[in-house]
# Entry
Amino acid sequence: MVKATGERTIMDLSIEELKALSPEEKKSVTTHGTIYNVRDMGDFAFVIIRKIGGLVQCLYNKKITEEDRHLFQDENAIRVTGEVRDEERAVNGFEIVIDKMEVLSAPKEELPLSVSKRKLNIALENEIEIRPVTLRNEQRRSVFKLQEGIVRGFRRYLEDNGFTEIFSPKIIAAGAEGGANIFKLDYFGKKAYLAQSPQTYKQTLIPVYERVFEIAPVFRAEKHDTARHLNEYVSVDFEMGYINSFYDVINMETGMLKYCFNYLEENYALVLKKLGCELPKFDTIPCVKFRDAKEMVAKKYGRKIKDPYDLEPEEERLIGELFKEDYGSDFVFVTHYPVKKRPFYAMDDPEDPKYTLSFDLLFRGMEITTGGQRIHDYDEQVKKMIFKGLYPEDFESYLMLHKYGVPPHGGLGMGLERLVMKLLDEKNIRATSMFPRDTTRLNP
# Structure
């Protein structure tokens, strides 16, 4: 945007665009930001401002007098006009030499901690209590810029592969997963629930669009108070029709992850650098059957199999360790989970009906994805519901899918926060949830 005065506002330009301004354009530029840090050098000062794309160094080429010191308070929202000048020592290779500065707003109170430190050095629980402040720290806000980049990468890949984005209801009449981990609501005198997943709606739309995806919150009323569980998290879901087997879903997810990591390297290099995040490299991801994975871990680590129907967190960790050591892979698909631990829509393995055509994706020793092939035959689906202790009449609208015809299909759901948690080697999932919800937290 060029004003009549010849000044150019750069509030909407990226850092790369700032560096690419012509010499004439650089002579007088107006922009805005929030004061992140001031380094007073006596006769001059460096004023670091926080903008959309990161930090920008400004040079105040005068002495800050006591009378003017309030203008340079941290978290002041300011507008500056000046010359853009190349400076290799600045955070982004340039600085703005301030000619004029205006304070747009100022904080009423001093911040409870300095947000400009590289690391906040504050306990996670205390950090979450003041998240509206701690998110202003460059390292902390970079976590959620990375999360943004992952979502953008997934969305672009899925759109390029013919998927339609959907937006399913989060207030529902029956749980998609069954079980007790579902929040109950009074919906104008009727029983209702918060959605555990968009599963039934994804499947319902297979005959409509053939391939669909959704990236949205889901809710689990689990009473776990662990470092890996949240009661509300962002789920990356997709469903695809006309599959030959659930390996088609596995291959689609493998391609999605590869595309996403390339996208991050190309478009979020500065964020990755700030976070010290090294993305995994792979062409393919190994697969192992559930039963075989448990036996491999038991044999290699001398660990007794305690639960024959599910993987314990320690087993997931050891499977990840084994596949990293023996196969050089950060990822592993564990397939063919027992019927007992899979939901009512999971298709049984015709070769061994005790198991299902389903999988989990483990990343660095933690499950981040659950998926598989779904039942598409009406009679088979009703039979499976009854076997699972469910009442088919509670799922009348869902069963229209099977009654009126649906092609073979499958899909998955991925926990976004867990993926980011393992990418950054965080120890607690709350570090990668912007405003986490767990068994004790409703604020901020």
